[in-house]
Amino acid sequence: MTELKIESINVKSVNVPMARPLVTGGGSVTSAPLVLINMEAGGIEGSSYIFCYSPAALSAMSELVQHIAESLKSQAALPNEVFYALRKRFRLLGNQGLVAMACAGIDMALWDIAAKNAGLPLCRLLGAESKSLPAYNSNGLGIIGPAAASNEARELLHSGFGAIKLRLGYPSASEDLAVVKAVHESVGNDILLMIDYNQCLSVTDAKQRMRLLDDTGIYWLEEPTLAEDYSGHHQIRQHCKTAVQIGENCWGPGDMKRALDAGACDYFMADVAKIGGVSGWLQAATLGENYGIRLSSHLYPEISAHLLSATPTAHWLEYVDWAEPILDSSVPPGNGMATPSEIPGNGIVFNSKAIKKYTV
Ligand SMILES: [Mg+2]
Q1: Which of 30, 36, 169, 263 is the most buried (most CB within 10 A)?
Q2: Rounded to whole angstroms, how far apart are CA atoms 251 and 141?
Q3: Which residues are found with C-beta within 5 Å of the ion, ligand 1?
């Protein structure tokens, strides 16, 4: 196989309205601000996107990706080589935040090129079978009160989902409990219910709230306190029976290892853009296996389906439809299971017409 050289890069910013705007304990998300990356090597186009959380970050992220990718022109399109070269290059600035996400976006696009060059879906390039993965519907269910939450919960079970995620962090513990009870009553006890506080409680408040919620059959308790407070999460975990889930805000496999060493969680969920792209995910998958911890995905369902297929301790795929308006590909889960796209690449195929509509 001839070695491909990075030839060009094209970066666009879009702001895509969300079908179900989300109010969380950590702030509101009403649209999906995405930076879209296309890199070309040997006539093969590799695509990826980065979810920026806030439209305020779009132009900075887009420029950063552009600058980094420009500097890679005419270099070999080998994701592993580029991953470690960029880790080294940004050691002084720090491999976190926008820098980490920009590098991950480039990494995902380069893996897309590698998979297309091999004529394989990404999971097969990684040596794995395409697997059918349990997926929960993570759209909607923000902080909208018990009546609206119970209606929305029922709507979210379309196409056979068996699990949904409820955002909590109402002013009082009793309000949190009322919403959990209302949703349970609405969907029945066979539906798994994850709850997510999006880091909004103190450690003491989290312990108090879990006294009320611990016996309600919640499947996992996600980010009850500040993401970087591993010892706080460990204390909460010691205090309650419900499994604690964290990881979406870990910057790279190093943070993941520190969280696991601190006993911060029962389950781990990696965000492909924050954990270091495909290259970082592969390390996270190995850590998950070494620590015997189930690994779920955060956002990015299209590429995460490939990555979870190659993860020995794969757990749940988080399904959101946020990028679907600008994609020609998706992983629509049927009967609550999702499978990676069968076409060569990482599963991300842009719809150029839709991109024009949402370009900012
Ligand atoms: Mg979360």
Answers
A1: 36
A2: 26
A3: 196, 222
